[in-house]
Amino acid sequence: MLTGTALGALVWARSMTIAHVCFGCARDLAGVRAVRDPHYALPLVICPDCGKACVRQTHPFHTRWIASLRIGTAVTALIFQNVVALTLICSTLVVIAGALTLGYAAMIGELTRQAMINLGMSIGAVSIVTGAWLTAGLSHIPWWRAWLGWMLLVVVLVGLIAAVSLGALGGRVPDLVSWIVGTSVITAAACVPLGIVMVLALAGIPLGKLILSAHRAFVRGRFRWRRRRRALGATLL
Ligand SMILES: [Zn+2]
Fold first, then answer.
1. Does residue 149 fall inside a structural domain?
2. Ligand 1 center–CA 24 separation, angstroms
3. Distance 54 CA to ligand 1 centre (A)
4. What are 53's strand-pairing partners?
5. pTM of the model
6. Is residue 154 within 8 Å of 92, Cβ to Cβ?
7. Residue 128, domain member (yes or no)
8. How far is residue 20's CA from residue 8's CA, in Å, rounded to a whole number?
9. Does residue 174 fall inside a structural domain?
10. How far is the CA of 25 from the centre of ligand 1 (A)?
11. What is the domain range of residue 172?
12. Residue 36 alpha carbon to ligand 1 centre in Å
């Protein structure tokens, strides 16, 4: 019941025409079409009776509603970006771990064809999504910086995981030098599958550009719709 009342109030406030009295002759200008002032782009209402011009008033409820919608959209985009980044980092680390395990299996002669096919498919999928995301999600920075930054982040994470894992082995790593050498060897070995992922990620660029242009077209469409509504002289701006 309360929700119904609140919804009713919302619809009323979204659609109601704010009372707008002319300063010159006290005529209600609520139904008079607003025109855009060419210099400051302010919505001007010219009184048909006395010719006095004043700026259209906007309902405070409406402006707050638009502001909260904008904040909501920004927060949702931020959360989405972080979730995608986190998922991609985890997937890349899993693929690197898989490649290193396969390399070890090859060394001891236990490499199977099925394992190679699985790893190849995983690397392909992760690479294309990475390329698309670096193109569409980080379009505000130069592509090479996004590529380098991403590689550096993954290398640092691999190094940290290797260092912690070797440290957790305890007695099996005899001294500090062995620990540093072990960490460096694992990190350097991880750069091979990471390099492959980053090269294959170039194939994801067209997909990223497609997502970007679809998003831009959507935003342009929304702005066009707003402009049309303003041009119609709607009393709610
Ligand atoms: Zn007037």
1. yes
2. 5
3. 10
4. 46
5. 0.65
6. yes
7. yes
8. 23
9. yes
10. 4
11. 78-221
12. 19
pLDDT in tens, 162-192: 888 887 776 666 678 888 888 899 999 999 9
Place of tokens 């290797």: 162
Whether 8 is covered by a domain: the verdict is no
- Give me the residues paired with residue 131 across strands: none
59-to-45, 125, 203, 233 alpha-carbon distances in Å? 15, 50, 49, 15
Residues 117-128, buried b or exposed e (16+ Cβ, 10 A)?
A: eebeebbeebbb
Cα gap 94→123, rounded to integer Å:
10
- Rounded to the nearest whole angstrom, what is the distance from the C-alpha of residue 46 to the centroid of ligand 1? 8
CA distances from 76 to 67, 73, 79, 139, 233 (A): 14, 5, 5, 18, 32
Please give the radius of gyration of the chain, using alpha carbons only, rounded to the nearest integer: 30
Q: Backbone phi, then psi, for 51, in 5-degree steps?
A: 80, 5
User: Tokens 């008079």 identify what position?
Assistant: 32
The total of structural domains in the chain comes to 1
pLDDT in tens, 27-54: 888 888 888 888 887 888 899 999 998 8
Q: Return d(Cα 182, Cα 185) in angstroms, integer.
A: 5
What Å distances lie between residue 235 and 14, 46, 137, 179, CA to CA?
11, 13, 37, 71
